[in-house]
Amino acid sequence: MRVITGSARGKRLSVCAGDAVRPTPDRVKEALFSIIQFQVEGRRVLDLFAGSGQLGIEALSRGAREAVFVDAAQQPAAVVAQNLESTGLSDRAKVKRMDFASYLAGDCGAFDLAFLDPPYRTGLLQRAIPLVAGRMNPGGTIICENPTDEPLPESAGDFIRGRSYRYGKIALTLYKHKDVT
Fold first, then answer.
1. Is pLDDT of 10 > 90?
2. Nearest 5°: phi and psi at 175?
3. Under 8 Å between Cβ of 41 and 116
4. Checking CA distances to 127, which of 1, 98, 101, 133 falls within 20 to 30 Å?
5. Distance CA 62, CA 121 (A)
6. More confident residue, 17 or 47
7. Which residue, 160, 172, 101, 98, is CA-closest to 132?
């Protein structure tokens, strides 16, 4: 797994050992950043259920102003910190080792981009979408990675489900503010 482009282009990223974390395949990550390529630079990014942190790191490499990485488990949080250090992007990042709901309930500010890639078929995505929607700037975008057969809500707060892109058994589903779609 590597950073595709930007200031950390080509840098290899570490991943957690075992099956606890499922990294986004490079071809899906490339497609995702093609979809949002003009929405990254200068933005504040949330990488929820961060795992290795590859999505937030890719955004930072492409010019995002700041990224916050949230993961409840010790090993993923440590891997994210290691990956940020090895890519030289630590100065614009925060790593929070805590439950996503606790983080979003706190004083975390508003985000322009949010990546949600929790463990599949656990109900975490359906629980997280409305909480994240309440923390988004009106012009922001929520990007969910989910299995194609996992149903997602039509709306969450002021955010409406938009286009879904399919890559084999993986879907990327975007939510946008109802006044922006």
1. no
2. -120, 135
3. no
4. 1
5. 30
6. 47
7. 101
Q: CATH classification of 26-177 is 3.40.50.150, yes or no? A: yes
**What is the residue extent of each domain of the chain?**
26-177
Which amino acid appears at position 16 of this protein?
A: C
Structure-token pair, residue 58: 């890719």
| Partners of 161 in beta bridges | 175
CA distance 49 to 51: 6
What pLDDT shows up at residue 102?
A: 96
User: How far is the C-alpha of 145 from the C-alpha of 82, rounded, in Å?
Assistant: 23
Integer Cα distance of 92 and 8 in angstroms? 13
Q: What span, in angstroms and rounded, lies between the C-alpha atoms of 171 and 169?
A: 7
Residues linked to residue 160 through DSSP beta bridges, in sequence order: 155, 176
- The 10s digit of each residue's pLDDT in 121-177 is 899 999 999 999 999 999 999 999 999 999 999 999 999 999 999 999 999 999 999
Burial label, 130 (beta-carbon count in 10 A; 0-12, 13-18, 19+): middle
How many residues in the chain? 181
pLDDT averaged over every residue in the chain: 93
* Reported pTM: 0.94
- pLDDT for 91-112, tens place per residue? 999 999 999 999 999 999 999 9
